Structure formats: structure tokens, C-alpha cells
Amino acid sequence: MVKQSYLFLPLILATFAATLLRTDQSFAQSEEDYYRLVSIMTPKAQTESRAKNWKPAPGDLVLEVSGLAVLDDRRVAVAIRKGEIWILDGVYDEPPKNVTYKRFASALHEPLGLIWKDGAFYTVQRSELTRIRDTDGDGTADEYLTVAKGWGVTGHYHEYAYGPEVDPDGNLWLTLNIGLGLKKEHKARAVTDPTLGFSQGRWRGWGMKCTPDGKLIPVCAGMRSPSGLGANRAGDMFYSDQQGNWVATNTLHHMRKGAFFHHVEALASMNLEGSPIKGIKTIPNGLPFPEAVKRMPQLKPPAVWFPYKKAGQSATDIMLDDSGGKFGPFDGQFFVGEFTQASMQRVFLEKVDGEYQGACFPFREGFASAVLRMDQGTDGSVFVGLTNRGWSSLGTASYGLQRLVWTGKTPFEIKEMRAQPDGFELVFTEPVDKKTAIDPKSYQLKSYTYTYHSSYGSDEILNKELTLDAITVSDDGMRVQLKTNGLRPLYVHELRAEGVKNSQGQPLLHPQAYYTLNRIPKR
Where is the signal peptide (predicted)? Predict the structure, then answer.
């Protein structure tokens, strides 16, 4: 009998292994399960539809999306790098087989933003903010009016201008790229700060706002490549920046009067009439960022650092989820586009002692090309404008338009990461399994900062592993308190929570969180 039982051992082991495999597979999940992509137009999509009345996009239309504005529950408007505005109808259809394309405006100079306001389009061209209207109702623009101008254009290729975005007071905000390595012919059209010696086009590297009566006001400075603009629910304006010289990694900043962020060549315009920044005479070059902030009071930390490659490589547009839950459980949070990795990050913000700070989380990969522009549809879905012009990105296309749709399933995620006087509070989208959530082995927590210097980017420096002193789970399983005595202000605090499961035993879809701790809350 004993010998005979051995005959069944392989079958028993195989059955056990199959059971384990089925259990693992039951928890297998992907971003697509929760947020699916619909391709409206990418290079491949033009020939896949066979609808009876379908018409392809015009053969010469290269939809390198540089601006995007949702108009209603059928149409979106798209600005393209070629200098045109197109209106696309039928973009919500699934599948989108009957999309129509109508050119609304042309002869623009590299528009890099688009909004629809009071019956007109507004876009920032390389040298001006422009209002564009169709006054006779034929569906084509016939009025192009300069709303504001006055920033410098030296002819350098990198002098992009972005926007606008509107704030609750009706001001139109825009941001201006810095010129990188100006040559003699560019400097002839630049301004120079006499103390620091920096030369740039007028107001280059600045954030500006245009009042409803057309006055252009310089607000803040220190930008390198500020391609994203967006307002939160409170009406405060933010911009995103990209890694480079003086910029350690991608960042998200709160724009406000007199703030200086990081790129020092923007100070070339510091002494121009209207500048709210004065008196910077020396630059702390080569110091850890927290030390540089102490040495230079005008230098303001970002609300969020995006650790390089962990949370993107080249941040782009900013979009507030203002859908009231139609786009899932993240209403009120920011989504930030990513160029190189053709992806999207999610951002939770809070205000501590008057300073914005918060956490970024991976959200969605797999777009067909670089994500440059985003806007939320009337149904809560997100339209995503794509173009990899001038830089390579992941993906199967060079340009196009896609739509990201919530499937109705809630992903198990860290919804919020909040700073506490002695650690962090995690808020989840679903109740946690208390056994795994209270286990210190489920978490890894460390902090680091970056070097503030004239070189390109920065490694993570002054790394410190943090020990969790206590873990508390709320009665409903939705919140976890992590206590540690090692918090450091002006440092990124990186959390990995691979061991945490929900009440069904499912792991987090994205166990990573990166919190920028500008201020430690007071007790």
C-alpha cells in the first residue's frame, strides 16, 4: 500500500501546482483592466476601419497634437505643430470609425496649447497669445487677434512657448522655454543681467499671465522646458518641467508671484520693468538641493519631484480630474503626461504650512506615442494628444490621438499619501488585508535628494533607509499609518509597498509612491 501511494504523488503535486497557478492567475492584473485605450487616429488606424460611410483623415494631415480642447460630447479641437487647428467630430464613438476632420485655422507659428473660451479659441504661438474666431459661421476662422505679446524670440530653436490655461479670475497663463546655449546671433537679440551675466531672450524661462484687459504680467521664473500647465480645484496654477541643466529631474511647481524655481538663466530678465524677483547676486552651484534652498531664499522647492525613470523621464501636460468620479477613484487629483516613456503619472497634492507638496504614482503606460497634451471629455474619459517630434519615445506611432476610458473596475491603489508629524498616512482605494498591511516586511521606505548644479540632471544623493517604528490600520481597512522618526524636510521619501494586499488577497497595481516632503506637519 505504501509503494502504491507513491504512484499518486506526481498527480497530487501536479494538482497542487495547478491550484497555485490558478490562484496566481486570479490576481493577475494589468492597467488595461481598469483603463483601456481607444485609438482615434494613429498612423495605423486610418486603414483599419471598414464602416460604410467612413472617410479617412485628409492624406496630408499629420496629427502631431500640440494643443487639445474638448468642445462637447461629440467634438474635440486639435492644434498641430504644422500650425493648424482641426475640429474632429465623432471622437467618442466606439469604435471611432466615422470621425470627420475639418480644418478650422491655419498659418499659425508652432501653437503649443489650445483652449476654447467665450466662443473663441486661444493659443500661444511662438511670439504671441492669439484669439481665433469664426465670425461668419462658416466653420472656418476668419479673425486672428493678438491678445498679448512682448517676450523675446532670438531665433533659437528651443524657445518654445506654451499655453494658455485660464484661472478662476479669467487670467490666461503661459510659460516660456529657456534657450539652450545661445550663440552670438541669438545674444544680439537677448537681454543680459549685469550682475550675473546671463543672457536670454526677454522673459525666457518665465511664467506669465495675461489679464482680461490684455496686460501681460511676469509672475515667476526659473523654468527650463515648462511644457505643462494646469490649475487645481482651488484655482492655483501649476507647471511641469523637464530634467536638464539646473533641473535634477522632472518636477511639478506651484506658480505664484515672485517665486524662483531652478534654471538660473531665466534671471537674465530679473531687472526688467515689472519683474517681481530682485536682488539675486550669487548662485549656490553644486550643493544638495535642501542646502541650496537655505543659501538662496528666492529658490522655491517643487511641489513634487518625479524620480527619473521611476516616474517618467520628460514631464509634459497637466490635467485635473474634474469628472466627479467618472474617471475612477481619483477625482480632484492631477494627471501628468510623459513624453519619452509614452505614459502618464498621477499626483496627489496637499498643503502643509502654506506650501504645496505631495506624492506621484505611476498610472498608465502603453500609449501609441509620446503623451504631449490631455483634456477630459464630457463623459470623464481623457483625450490624449500624441507626438514624438524632435525626440524619440516608446510606442508604435509618431503621432495621433487616443482616448483613455475607465472600465468601471476600481484598481487597488494607494490613492493618497499624506504627511504626518511622525510619518505618513496611506489612503487606499479598497480595504486592505490587515495582516499584510500591519507587517513591516510589506514596506520599504527611504529618502534622498538631488544636487542643485549647472550640470545636466542629478543622481539621487544622501540616500537613507528608514525604519518603521509602528504601523496602524484603521477599522475600515482604508487607511494605514506608518510611523518613523527619520523624516527629512526637502527630501523625496520613496515608498514601496509590495507586500500589501487588499481584502481579497490582491496586490497593489502600483506599489510605488514618491512623496516630496517640503514641510513636516506640526503636531
Answer: 1-28
